[in-house]
Design a protein that fits this description.
It contains 15 helices and 19 strands. It has 436 residues and is an alpha/beta fold. The chain folds into 2 domains: 221 residues, NAD(P)-binding Rossmann-like Domain (Rossmann fold), CATH 3.40.50; 204 residues, FAD/NAD(P)-binding domain (3-Layer(bba) Sandwich). Strands 3-2-1-4-19-18 form a 6-stranded mixed beta sheet, with helices on both faces. It has a 6-stranded parallel beta sheet with strand order 6-14-7-8-10-9. A 3-stranded antiparallel beta sheet has the order 11-12-13, with no helix packed on it. The chain starts with a strand and ends with a helix. The relative contact order is 0.19. The structure holds NADP nicotinamide-adenine-dinucleotide phosphate. The site of NADP nicotinamide-adenine-dinucleotide phosphate (NAP) has 24 residues, from helix 7.
């Protein structure tokens, strides 16, 4: 019997578990461990609440969790309740699938002012992540600034601009729904430090901005290169996104809210007396290497809320080699060292879609299979050893059937038309399970 521990129950963790479960069948036991009592990571806490069809992928993960050779072990924080070294002594392989839950920093003056949030904080707030549910983003001013030109910036701008009707059917949590109901935000400026040809926004997500009830995108045609330059774009998705931006530039926004694209614009300072009031922006141009360079020309944008959507990093964990530059675990093709692996964003950094994690997880499972053939003897204590350790430390782990109880309670509490009303605190979840 072989024993595998996967740390993290997001997409990367589940695809790796799926691959290992298939490869080893009854010759392995796989524990998917999460620090939260509930599974799914990015699917539950990152994917936008109005993108329910994407969240349906969790149905596939359920099948994995319910397989005889797989367990979900929630409410166990690795690096805290149990060390990585202890885990390695109990399991034949440990796979780090911890994602990238920390915001990358802007590194500019004023970043610490109240009203400036990173996207992990803001998205975590509206998605009910227990770490972020307590934020109170200021929505009492008219102007919001969103920094970054990726899909997360689009998610944030869209959620800030939708009506409550448009959020029907979403699983946005009650505190965010109520706060958005009272929101006075009338315009959102998306600050992109490079130009329309350098965006990281995909066409489907960008296209959604053209169909909002009371908001529309505003794009300045003067910021585009000549139209023939689009022909040179090799990435067809990018070419489509640029086409959408050009369409937006050709239609003046006539709705009550605007989502304004400000290209060649980088924030250099955030100012305000005790809270954010404005962002000082510098015009940029792109140099020969494709990087944004400041021109020295500055202007200010009023802002009562700033959300920086410039990427994420994985926090280091004791006992796991770390790549400080990349903000992820140091690894070669998923191998950190013998018996210790990384998958997903913890391996590659925060890029790619949910589907990207499937080949990633399968590849690392293949490396494990090559290193320890199915049927070979492991001799480690596995899950039984972990359970004994948790008992001795008075840690109440949650299982998949506990998650099913939480899920049923969330579905029962849903507002009309919504799939669920998420519990947003760990202690509330544990109380429901009788653990507190
Ligand atoms: P991202 O795609 O890497 O975009 C980050 C953006 O931030 C880039 O435009 C980048 O500009 C900009 N940026 C970085 N540092 C900056 C700085 N110091 N100042 C100003 N701008 C800065 O990251 P993301 O939006 O967080 O998305 C993460 C991943 O999740 C992506 O692969 C994304 O596609 C995926 N995702 C997908 C969906 C979906 O499919 N619906 C939804 C959300 C996220 P430069 O290009 O100039 O560096």
């Amino acid at each position: 019997m072989r024993h595998f521990a996967i740390v993290g129950s997001g997409p990367a963790g589940f695809y790796t578990a799926e691959a290992l479960a298939k490869a080893y069948g009854d010759a392995a036991r796989i524990d998917i461990i999460d620090r939260l009592p509930v599974p799914y990571g990015l699917i539950r806490f990152g994917v936008a609440p109005d993108h329910q069809s994407i969240k349906k992928v969790a149905l596939r993960y359920d099948k994995v969790a319910e397989a005889d050779n797989v367990r979900f072990v929630g409410n166990v924080s690795i690096g805290d309740a149990v060390s990585v070294a202890e885990l390695r002594s109990l399991y034949d392989a440990v796979i780090m699938a911890t994602g990238a839950p920390h915001d990358r920093r802007l590194g500019i003056e004023g970043e610490e002012l109240p009203g400036v949030l990173g996207s992990a904080e803001f998205v975590g707030w509206y998605n009910g992540h227990p770490d972020h549910a307590g934020h109170a983003p200021p929505l009492d001013g008219e102007h919001a600034v969103v920094i970054g030109a990726g899909n997360v910036a689009l998610d944030v701008a869209r959620i800030l601009s939708k009506t409550l009707d448009e959020l029907e059917g979403s699983d946005i949590v009650a505190h965010a729904y109520d706060a958005l109901a009272a929101s006075r935000v009338r315009d959102v400026t998306i600050l992109a430090r490079r130009g329309p040809h350098q965006i990281a926004m995909t066409p489907k997500e960008l296209g959604e901005l053209g169909h909002l009830e009371i908001a529309c995108p505003e794009v300045d045609a003067a910021e585009f290169p000549p139209p023939e330059a689009d022909d040179a774009l090799e990435d067809r998705g990018l070419a489509k996104s640029v086409g959408l931006l050009r369409d937006y530039a050709g239609q003046p926004c006539d709705k009550e809210r605007a989502i304004r694209f400000d290209f060649f614009a980088r924030p250099v300072r955030i100012e305000g007396a005790g809270k954010v009031e404005r962002v000082i922006v510098e015009r940029t141009r792109i140099d020969d290497t494709g990087r944004a360079r400041g021109t020295g020309e500055e202007y200010e944008l009023p802002a009562s809320l700033v959300v920086s959507c410039i990427g994420y990093s994985s926090p280091p964990i004791e006992g796991v080699a770390y790549d400080h530059r990349g903000g992820r675990f140091a690894n070669e093709g998923g191998v950190i060292e013998e018996g210790l692996y990384a998958v997903g964003w913890a391996r590659r950094g925060p890029t790619g879609t949910i589907g990207t994690n499937r080949p990633d997880g399968y590849e690392v499972a293949g490396l494990i299979e090559a290193a320890m053939a199915p049927g070979s003897e492991g001799g480690k204590a596995g899950g039984e050893g972990l359970d004994a350790l948790l008992d001795a430390r008075d840690v109440h782990a949650t299982g998949f059937s506990d998650w099913r109880k939480i899920e049923a309670a969330e579905e029962a509490a849903a507002r009309a038309g919504a799939p669920r009303e998420k519990m947003v605190s760990t202690s509330e979840m544990l109380r429901l399970l009788g653990h507190e």
